[in-house]
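Incident log, support desk, overnight shift.

02:14 A customer reports that sequence design results differ from what the structure should imply. Their input is reproduced verbatim below. On-call engineer (initials T.W.) acknowledged and began investigating.
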């Protein structure tokens, strides 16, 4: 009889992984419904939270290194200073999320929705952001060395002072983006859309801009040493010396 009661209690607890997660007794909770949950500074390393609803959740300072968050809803979540190194965020929704000083180095954010996200001073070194929606986001002073951004939408985003050395930005959408003082040395911007982008004082040394659309862009005081501009559309572009390209 006692064994039956114990087994029943264990079974009942196992049937509520969300409660176990909130109690710090369990890390895995795929497809859990936890909107607005307070998980501040939780240790969720390598946790399985794929498809979970964490919209508006507080994850400030949490450790989610190597976690599976593929397809998760993190819209409006607080992920400031969160450790997301090597996390799987493929197809996750992070629109309007706060990721100030978050560490996403090596994370996979392919096709992730980061529209309007606040990611100032975040670390995205070697992160995968192919085809991600990062429009209207704040990425000022972010570290994005070697990030993969092929086909990503960064229109109107603030990338001022951001490090994008050797980043892959082939066919990326950067219309009206601010790249003032950005470090784009060796970056690949082939066929990128940079219409009306502000690249004042940006360092484009050795960057590839072949076939890029730079109509109306501002390159005032930018460095273009050894940059490749073959086939680029420079109509109306303000050049480094202040002249306007016809």
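02:41 Re-run completed on a clean worker. Output:
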């Amino acid at each position: 009889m006692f064994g039956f009661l114990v087994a029943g209690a264990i079974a009942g607890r196992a049937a509520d992984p969300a409660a176990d997660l909130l109690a710090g007794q369990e890390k895995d909770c795929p497809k859990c419904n936890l909107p607005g949950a307070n998980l501040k500074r939780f240790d969720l390393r390598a946790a399985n939270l794929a498809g979970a609803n964490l919209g508006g959740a507080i994850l400030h300072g949490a450790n989610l290194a190597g976690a599976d968050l593929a397809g998760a809803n993190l819209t409006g979540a607080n992920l400031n200073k969160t450790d997301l190194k090597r996390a799987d965020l493929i197809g996750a929704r992070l629109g309007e999320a706060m990721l100030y000083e978050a560490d996403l180095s090596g994370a996979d954010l392919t096709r992730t929705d980061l529209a309007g996200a606040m990611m100032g001073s975040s670390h995205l070194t070697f992160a995968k952001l192919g085809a991600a929606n990062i429009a209207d986001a704040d990425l000022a002073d972010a570290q994005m060395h070697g990030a993969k951004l092929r086909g990503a939408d960064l229109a109107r985003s603030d990338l001022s002072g951001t490090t994008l050395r050797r980043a892959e930005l082939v066919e990326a959408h950067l219309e009206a983006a601010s790249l003032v003082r950005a470090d784009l040395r060796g970056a690949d911007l082939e066929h990128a859309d940079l219409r009306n982008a502000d690249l004042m004082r940006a360092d484009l040394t050795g960057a590839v801009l072949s076939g890029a659309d730079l109509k109306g862009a501002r390159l005032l005081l930018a460095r273009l040493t050894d940059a490749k501009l073959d086939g680029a559309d420079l109509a109306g572009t303000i050049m480094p010396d202040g002249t306007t390209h016809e």
